[in-house]
Amino acid sequence: MGLKVTVVGVGLVGEAIVSCLKERKFPCEWPPRVAATRERPETLAGEKMLVEETSAGSFNGADLVLFAGQEGAKGASVTWRETAERCGAWSIDNGRDFRLAADVPLVVPEVNSGAITPKTRFIASPNCSTIQMVVALAPIHRAAKIKRIIVATYQATSGWGMRGPQELRAQTPKALVSQENLEFDPKVFARPIAFNCIPHIDQFVDGDYTREEMKMVHETRKILDDSKIKISATTVRVPVLNGHGEAVWVETAKKLSADEARELLRKAPGIVVIDEPDPANNRRTYPTPLDLLKPEYKDVTLVGRIREDISSAKGLALWVVSDNIRKGAALNVVQIAEELLRRGLLKA
Ligand SMILES: NC(=O)c1ccc[n+]([C@@H]2O[C@H](COP(=O)([O-])OP(=O)(O)OC[C@H]3O[C@@H](n4cnc5c(N)ncnc54)[C@H](OP(=O)(O)O)[C@@H]3O)[C@@H](O)[C@H]2O)c1
User: Fold this and answer.
1) Is residue 347 part of a domain?
2) Which pick of 65, 249, 255, 265 has the fewest CB atoms within 10 Å?
3) Residue 244 sits in which domain range?
4) CB-based pocket (< 6 A), ligand 1
């Protein structure tokens, strides 16, 4: 008998959770229970499944609930967290609603699995842009103590959810003919996304910053357990289907050379460094979001362009790429569940 798992939300992240459970042979009853806003048959991870309308019954007997529904007051985890807790289940949430609550661990297993305690059965998974950045920066922080981070993101349309790539696909053929007066849905992206870059992800909050930018500030401090790190982010939506890129600059207390940083990152869990000399082409190798289509890279954080920052005595610059749907959400959640198993907090 496997664990009873309920997945709430079957959009891009929910479907990827089902795929990750299957690919990684997570010891659960198969198929997992899947729930969303309404009942219907769906093909998930290549299998026909019946999606149920989420109700209190969806959590009956569940050992583990993986939330991948929408956020906010009417969202999945705000509505159903207490019900899942009353049923005695462990819950792991993809949304922003509880990430900064003092009693909720915010976990990236490669970085801070120690934050999981038996005291709380509700765990949050960070924002996608935060996850890949902290995977890459945690080894540098441990070795040389990061004092300041500047980051500019290049975020894929899938980060918005199912409707994001649909907007890009719908606009692209028309934009090839003319980029003027392109039709777009401002509820998805604030401007046309085809052949464009939009420096606006989520709402404007805290003065001139967006909520996506402030998530990177607050969540990074919580995960790295260092409220003193200075962080400034500019988050940008780009016409990429899937996979976020980030240009990151850090200043450290202790100087690290680019070679030292490369060595540290090569040994770190969940990271593949792609940053080799390529003299034939008079350049170095580097990762791009399309590299995530290669099976060996789909579940890791790729790091390249590692170099000493010429504008700072103790500064480094790097380029970080990862799959926002998998490591940025679904895979991270399943890895947290695997950590619960390893620690004996969840027993198959
Ligand atoms: N996309 C990313 O890169 C990413 C990365 C990190 C975290 N996240 C977070 O992961 C969550 C899911 O994102 P997504 O990209 O998969 O979104 P999505 O493609 O828009 O899918 C959302 C899913 O949630 C379901 N849902 C919405 N409200 C619900 C409710 N009250 N109760 C039950 N189900 C509900 C929807 O049901 P129907 O299918 O019935 O409409 C749909 O299946 C969000 O919290 C998002 O912020 C996303």
Assistant:
1) no
2) 255
3) 130-323
4) 8-14, 36-38, 54, 68-71, 74-76, 79, 94-95, 127-128, 158-159, 161-162, 324-325, 328-329
pTM: 0.97
- Give the residue, out of 7, 12, 13, with the most ligand 1 atoms within 8 A of its beta carbon, to mutate for a pocket test: 13
Q: What residues are labeled active site?
A: 128, 244
Residue 222, C-beta contacts closer than 8 angstroms, at least 6 positions apart: 99, 100, 106
The answer as to whether 277 is a domain residue is yes
Tell me if 80 sits within 8 A of 67, measured CB to CB.
Answer: yes
106 shares its domain with 169 = no
Euclidean distance between CA atoms 235 and 213, whole angstroms: 6
39-56 as b/e: b if 16+ CB within 10 A = eeeeebbeeebebbebee
209 lies in the same domain as 264: yes
Is 289 a residue whose pLDDT tops 90?
yes
DSSP labels, 38-105? S-EEEEETTEEEEEEEP-GGGGTT-SEEEE-S--STTSHHHHHHHHHHHTT-EEEE-SSTTTT-TTS-
pLDDT tens-digit profile of 61-78?
999 999 999 999 889 999
Strand-pair category, 315-322 with 244-252: antiparallel
